Amino acid sequence: MKVAGLTGGMGSGKTTVAGFFRELGVPVYIADEAGKRLMDTSAEVKSKILQVFGEEAYSEGKLNRKHIASKVFNAKEQLEKLNNIVHPAIARDFEEWKNTQAEAYVIYEAAILLETGGESRCDWVILVTARMENRIQRLQKRDQSTVGEIEARLKHQWNDEKKRSLADFEIKNDDLSQTKDQVRNIHEIILKAIKN
């Protein structure tokens, strides 16, 4: 089973692009959603989070997101500890999911795919980019954040230049009809590559 990694910075529109691949019949795994699910449902993940972050990490069996956010925000070491618990669990969950799929390839969508070396588990990497003003507008709409808050969060991410050097394809997601065409083209290229 071939894997196309799908990534991009905040507000680039990864979810929209993932949806376009889904419309073409490609199974899509969203790592962020899987991580949230596993933190609430996996006994192993829960137990490790409780060990590191204490009893307040869970409230009524569900992850206390506010508590965790307060612990990892601006605390690189704590964030790394959380990632070291969640990322291996996501990787195992993805492998199990992938083995149940019957299509020619699947999409693995992850915000920090390249930052964590995830490209090594992918046959192709698709980078979603968008003009900065579009990204900021989308994030303001989605999170009700200020421009200052968004810019501060963006500083913690790799820029598109750095990501581009590791990507096989780039989708410029500023005009949705053009985005759809780009997705279709990449889909056809991947299918052709698999057949050969």
Brief account:
By secondary structure, the chain is α/β, with parallel strands linked by helices.
Describe this protein's structure.
The chain has 196 residues and is of the alpha/beta class. It is 55% helix and 15% strand. The protein has 9 helices and 7 strands. The chain has helices at 14-23, 31-41, 43-53, 65-72, 76-98, 132-143, 147-154, 160-164, 176-195; strands spanning 2-8, 28-30, 58-59, 62-63, 105-109, 124-129, 169-172. A hairpin with a 2-residue loop joins strand 3 (58-59) and strand 4. Helix 2 (31-41) crosses helix 3. The chain is globular and about 50 Å long. The two termini are 14 Å apart.
What's the helix and strand layout?
Blueprint: E1 2-8, H1 14-23, E2 28-30, H2 31-41, H3 43-53, E3 58-59, E4 62-63, H4 65-72, H5 76-98, E5 105-109, E6 124-129, H6 132-143, H7 147-154, H8 160-164, E7 169-172, H9 176-195
Helix pairs in contact: 2-3, 2-5, 3-5
Number of helices: 9
Mean pLDDT: 93
Radius of gyration: 18 Å
Number of strands: 7
The amount of beta strand, in percent, is 5-15%
Note poorly predicted spans.
none
Strand order of the largest sheet: 2-5-1-6-7
Q: Based on helices, strands and strand pairing, what is the structural class?
A: alpha/beta
Approximate helicity band: 55-70%
Distance between the termini: 14 Å
Shape: globular
Order of SSEs, N→C? EHEHHEEHHEEHHHEH
Main beta-sheet strand count, sense and barrel state: 5 strands, parallel
